[in-house]
Write a structure and sequence with these properties.
single chain, five-stranded mixed beta sheet, four-stranded antiparallel beta sheet, elongated
């Protein structure tokens, strides 16, 4: 039996297979370009998420349409044998909003969904955004709202998934959105995007024998404008007297406590975040927003370094100003603070000193680890489109080029090897059941592995 797959095209998607290292076109199929499709070889059925119509559709291997279901908002799909796994969210008209994962047993003629129970309470605006199957392990990537998780299930019996592990994913920055995952027994790759104070960024994090970071930072004019409309202005960083900053509204200056309370009483159409003030404010839709001042948003390391450079420059200018304009003897100065700190340290017990030293060592070790991670990144020149992992090789597609990279050589060599193709404007990759890689543009395709 042939291993079939669908190559989406903007004009007419096709059913294909690979013979003698050549792609063989077996005929058209009515699946749109924006879709995700799997093939069940046993029952000769294609199951496809149609994002254009927001529906799940099924076809026979000759392209004949079987039926559809639009009960849920599915966004991810994978298959093992004749069991299809689907991830996404419930329809918004349902009461139970949040992550959804279901399985579809193609051996059953009624094609009914069976819900897979997740080990957390479903949260509004969260979704199972991608699914990876590695042997008998089902990996679900939980998306959008912090915290983000990896849920692992044992699918030795594909029809009865058993939860075995939950892993809390480290974040790469603010407003992080997981886009895709892929991997094998040795490696797991997760692609995500963030929006921060210095523009939009894309991250490809590879977990395995070593942690690998591949990133692209978009500092284009469009990205900066988008960032300014959604993020806090750098110059509005909270000082002791600053209070409110917008999260998703136009950028504004800092406010004092009195100014904030006055604004709150007059205008309840904006959402604010304050590190010193717990607030419940209505937005334009009348919905309530809750913010935890004890959990400030984290920035990725490259953003922290830029903040650090700006801070050091401000400190340099401040010191020069103090030297040029010395304060009165009665005013507090740096030396007063320095000697007061020494006195405070000397008055502590040995146990308190040991605890502070331990905490300081942990923070320093974390700094060294982040510094090492910073130095070990691979920086892309162009936006990241797609990726797949086959054995120890990473196939990576940007908006301009296609690369292959040996993940085992990460500690020695970080040069990506470019793969030449005949296509222009490449947009996505396909990995077949036999681990063959096909690169796709809107009007063509090519076998590269």
């Amino acid at each position: 039996m042939k291993n079939l797959f669908v190559i989406p095209q903007k004009t007419q998607s096709v059913i294909a297979t690979i013979e003698n290292n050549q792609i063989v076109n077996l005929g058209p199929i009515d699946i749109p370009y924006v879709s995700k499709t799997v093939y069940c070889q046993k029952h000769e059925i294609f199951v496809s998420i149609n994002f254009k119509e927001k529906a799940l559709k099924m076809y026979r291997e000759n392209g004949e349409y079987i039926g559809f279901n639009n009960q849920f908002n599915f966004s991810s799909i994978a298959i093992k044998g004749d069991v299809v796994y689907l991830g996404g969210t419930y329809k918004k008209k349902k009461n139970d909003l949040g992550e959804l994962c279901s399985l579809l047993d193609l051996s059953q003629v009624d094609f009914k969904f069976k819900q897979i129970n997740l080990p957390i309470v479903a949260v509004k605006n969260k979704a199972i955004d991608d699914i990876v199957i590695v042997g008998n392990k089902l990996i679900l990537l939980d998306n959008i709202v912090f915290p983000k998780y990896i849920f692992e299930f044992d699918i030795s019996n594909p029809r009865v998934p058993i939860h075995t592990n939950t892993i809390n994913l480290p974040d790469n920055g603010t407003y992080e959105h997981i886009v895709k995952g892929d991997g094998n027994e040795k490696w797991l790759g997760i692609k995500s995007s963030t929006v921060g104070s210095f523009g939009c960024a894309q991250h490809l994090t590879i977990f395995g024998e070593t942690s690998i970071k591949i990133e692209y930072l978009d500092e284009s004019e469009e990205s900066v404008q988008y960032r300014q409309s959604t993020e806090i202005k750098p110059e509005s960083c909270c000082d002791d007297n600053d209070l409110a900053h917008p999260l998703k509204d136009e950028a504004i200056d800092s406010y004092t406590v009195e100014e904030f309370l006055e604004l709150q009483s007059k205008n309840k159409t904006k959402s604010f975040y304050s590190p010193d003030f717990t607030a419940e404010i209505n937005n334009k839709e009348g919905k309530k927003n809750y913010f935890n001042p004890n959990e400030p948003e984290r920035e990725p390391l490259y953003m922290k370094r830029k903040w650090e450079e700006e801070y050091q420059e401000r400190e340099r200018l401040r010191i020069l100003d103090e030297l040029a304009n010395p304060k009165n003897e009665n005013e507090f100065n740096e030396s007063d603070y320095f000697f007061a700190s020494i006195e405070e340290w000397n008055n502590k017990s040995q146990e308190e000193k040991d605890e502070l030293i331990r905490i300081g060592k942990e923070e320093y070790d974390l700094y060294l680890e982040e510094e090492k991670e910073w130095n070990n990144r691979i920086i892309l020149k162009h936006s990241l489109r797609d990726f797949f992992i086959v054995e120890d090789n990473l196939y990576l597609l940007t908006t301009e080029e296609l690369f292959c990279y040996d993940l085992t050589k990460y500690t020695e060599d970080r040069e990506l090897v470019k793969i030449e193709t005949k296509l222009t404007k490449m947009e996505k990759l396909i990995k077949t059941a036999e681990n063959r890689i096909v690169v796709v543009s809107a009007k063509g395709y090519e076998l590269i592995k």
